[in-house]
Amino acid sequence: MELLRIENLNKRYYNKTALSDVNLSIEKGKIYGLLGPNGSGKTTLMKVIAGLHKQTSGNVLVDGEPLSHKSKALISYMPTENYIYGDYKVKHVIRFYKDMYEDFQEDTALKILNGIKVDTEFRVSKLSSGLTGKLKVALALSRNAEFYMLDEPLNGVDVLSRDVIMDLIMKSYNENKTMIISTHLVSEIEKILDSVIFLKDGVIELQGDAEELRLSKGMSVEGLYKEVFRNA
Ligand SMILES: Nc1ncnc2c1ncn2[C@@H]1O[C@H](COP(=O)(O)OP(=O)(O)OP(=O)(O)O)[C@@H](O)[C@H]1O
Q1: What total number of domains does the chain contain?
Q2: Residue nearest to ligand 1 atom 17, measured at CA
Q3: 44 C-beta closer than 6 A to ligand 1
Q4: Complex ipTM over 0.90
């Protein structure tokens, strides 16, 4: 069943075209990889879907309806930038999320943070970049949302932390949840993706089922990515 439909979406910042005639259908219960190099438009696309940027033209429909307060509440969006106030202790961030989001599950957050050894008495500014990355993902996944968008969750964290983050994503996923994960670290993320979207200079270059693409093209998604973006 379709959760999100994007029709003829264009986004321009002044004279820069960030997204050009994007058409997409996102089905419920799947994990999508939004893959592309720096500047390809991944963050812009997520911000438009999250309702944080207004498109220049085109339609974004969630459950068949244009973006609204109601549809935005279904989406748990993790921005790529470090948005958490550094002077807060982790426990204050949790309180903030609890106040901010009706679907935030404090017990889940505390369990995840305990499991990944993030002390809630710690100040956010004192966390390593690996722990900050894990905290951001843990907060986004602790919302009982229908639709998760994680923008570059593997960026700036070491290889071991990447494994922990992927494990968190897989443990919180179930067939009632839909996820879009953006990254340029394709080899790491490939194994958890059902479907892939290649974005190049604001244009969807390729999209499809990850397994079907591997079979039809005779290579991994990473191999395909390198082929498509080699001259980007
Ligand atoms: N606020 C803005 N004003 C002007 N141009 C912008 C703005 N935000 C993004 N852009 C431009 O739009 C294009 C797409 O940027 P975007 O951040 O969406 O790409 P991205 O794939 O997420 O890249 P990255 O991985 O570097 O975050 C880039 O050329 C970028 O410079």
Answers
A1: 1
A2: 43
A3: yes
A4: yes
